[in-house]
Each structure stands twice: as structure tokens, then as C-alpha cells.
Write a structure and sequence with these properties.
The protein has about 130 residues and is α+β, with helices and mostly antiparallel strands. The chain is globular. It contains three helices and six strands. It has one domain: Thiol Ester Dehydrase, Chain A (Roll), CATH 3.10.129. A six-stranded antiparallel beta sheet has the order 1-2-4-5-6-3.
């Protein structure tokens, strides 16, 4: 885990996390939480948060959680598939994604990620399948 935290600290300024203001709140293989304040960078032309932002947060939480399962620094992890259902538009000024592990296999992991708004209302729910790389 310390290796992952070092990589994140070293590279974060060159990632979408820095660009869009995403913060890591909790980093753990069983549950990872990421959050961001909503601003103009996250909106589509109608003034609503773009659905891709919800998916980005969900996959980020799942991928980071999956990365916590890696046994050595030579392993990697990639997302194979993600599906999401957006159930309402975001309200308030913040989004939070929480990933929970629902399957751990030898080569694949599956996470459920819930994206909620400032009031704790469910905005989007996603399932993300990850593949472990040697």
C-alpha cells in the first residue's frame, strides 16, 4: 500500500485527478472513497453534471481499490468493463464515489461503486470489472 501511495503522490499532478479536482478520501482494497467539489469543469451544455464524470469517479474508486490488492510493484491493474446507471442529477456542490469489492478472483476483481451528492442521495451506481496484470 505504501508503494501505491508513493506513486499517487508522485504522479497526481499529471492526472485527471488534479485537472478535475478529485481527492482520495479513503484508500483500501475493500472500500475506496474519492470526492470532488462540483464546478464549471464538470458540466455539460445544459448546465448539469456530465454523466461521464459519474463514471470517471466510479471507475477511479474501483481501480484504486483494486490497486490496493496488488502483491508487488511489478503488477498492474486495468479496467475491463464498466456499466453505470444514472438515477438522478446531482444536487449540491460535491460528489462522492464509494467502491465496494463484490468479487475477488485470481485474475479479475469486481467492484460496485455508488456516486452520491452532497445530501447523500444516490446519483449513479456502477459495476466495474478489473483485470490483474503480471
Amino acid at each position: 500500500m505504501k508503494h501505491l501511495e508513493a506513486i499517487i503522490k508522485k504522479t497526481n499532478d499529471q492526472t485527471v485527478f488534479k485537472t478535475l479536482g478529485i481527492e482520495i478520501i479513503k484508500l483500501d482494497a475493500d472500500e475506496t472513497i474519492v470526492s470532488m467539489a462540483i464546478d464549471h469543469r464538470h458540466l455539460q451544455h445544459a448546465g448539469l453534471v456530465h454523466g461521464g464524470i459519474y463514471v470517471l469517479l466510479a471507475e477511479s474508486a474501483a481501480s484504486l481499490a483494486g490497486a490496493c490488492t496488488l502483491k508487488n510493484p511489478h503488477q498492474g491493474i486495468v479496467a475491463l468493463e464498466i456499466n453505470a446507471n444514472h438515477v438522478r442529477s446531482a444536487r449540491g456542490d460535491k460528489l462522492t464515489a464509494r467502491s465496494k469489492n463484490i468479487h475477488s478472483g485470481k485474475k479479475t476483481l469486481v467492484y460496485e461503486a455508488r456516486v452520491e451528492d452532497s445530501d447523500g442521495q444516490l446519483i449513479s451506481i456502477a459495476r466495474c470489472t478489473l483485470m490483474l496484470l503480471d
